[in-house]
Amino acid sequence: MKNLAKILLLPLMLLTACEKDRPGKLETADIIVNVVFPATYSQQGAAGATVTLTNASDASVKTATTNSEGNAVFQEVLPGTYTFSASKNLTAAEAESLTGINTPVSLNATQGSVTISAANNPTFTLRLQGSAAGSLLIKEVYYTGSKTPSGGNYFSDQFVEIYNNSTDTLYLDSLCIADAYGNSGLINPTSLPTPYKEDQDHVYVGNVWRIPGSGKDHPLAPGQSILIAQDGVNHKEEELNPNSPVDLSAAEWETYNERPDNRDADAPGVPNLERLYFTGGFDWLLTVFGPGVIIFKADFNSLEQVPIPGSPLDPRIKVPNSVVIDAFEALKDGNSADFKRIPAGLEAGFVFADDTYTMQSFRRKVATVINGRRVLQDTNNSASDFEKLSAPTPKGF
Ligand SMILES: [Ca+2]
Ligand SMILES: [Ca+2]
User: Fold this and answer.
1) What's the pTM value of the predicted model, to 2 decimals?
2) Which tens digit of pLDDT belongs to each residue from 364-390?
3) Nearest residue to 103 (alpha-carbon basis) of 386, 385, 383, 378
4) Quick one: which ligand is closest to 272's CA?
5) CB 87 within 8 A of CB 108
6) Is residue 4 pLDDT above 70, yes or no?
7) What is the CATH number of domain 29-130?
8) Nearest ligand, measured from the Cα of 159
């Protein structure tokens, strides 16, 4: 009886096998390629992406476009080894809704050596990558200083906070920070604007500090920041200034100005920036009347040193606008526009505090929040991008 069943089933099995093995009707797979945006984007499925499957053995190519869920469907794909690729270009407006940053972005993904067998109908995921939308930004500058209990002026508690306003990890290695040369306003009746004012293609800086590293030693994740302190200590300590608004002992970096007389103390717990060029006094003091600050990346030795017209002081360093990543400008008061030092093409406006030693600080506004990541406002105009705070907020968010 058992044998009879086998005999009866045999023709059916043969029939099925014949159907599959028939020449011209090769076994194939239907596959789905799901294309997703970088993880920092507000959406995952990438609609309208072009997906290409290239067969490794004969270089034949199949192309499809993703639907609203980011899925591209390929039917009757021959088993074999393939390279998958996907691309998607975003307009500035599309990028803004996905990343918070208004800039065109080109995204791509490639995955080689993908095996497709006829056994199943699999779904593959391709994650797009591209240049970071957004950049490092100067997030907060606290330059006004504070008053001591006895009414003295205290300015060692200054800091600059730098923020990764992009969609990707950025590396701080070799990032330079510098302050622009020139008066902040009519400090005294004979104060003149910067003599470099006619050159709107460069920033002339007096001091240059650099974050050390060989390229990828100091990653900064999207939405994270670092503090650069004039002195990386707790300024609220009794022997410093109990009225100071900040404890900077956890700053990532400090400016240590090594001198024979040790007037600047080296806080042991806070790494020191490299001092590339210095024309200041005891420490890297940002003018309490309102500094211009830039961050940039460049080969320092390639930068020109330019004498100050009519001045015996040391030359200043000429930084091309093209290498400047971000700029901030504060001046003495609302009537100080003529004293602007940062070219308007880099930073159009300026901020000003009520007075010196007021503890007032300037922090960039939040433009939007994408997946919990704050995207800071950057219209290249300090006047509208920064808000005046009554006290600094180092690493406030
Ligand atoms: Ca210092
Ligand atoms: Ca130190």
Assistant:
1) 0.86
2) 999 999 989 999 999 999 999 999 999
3) 378
4) 2
5) yes
6) no
7) 2.60.40.10
8) 1
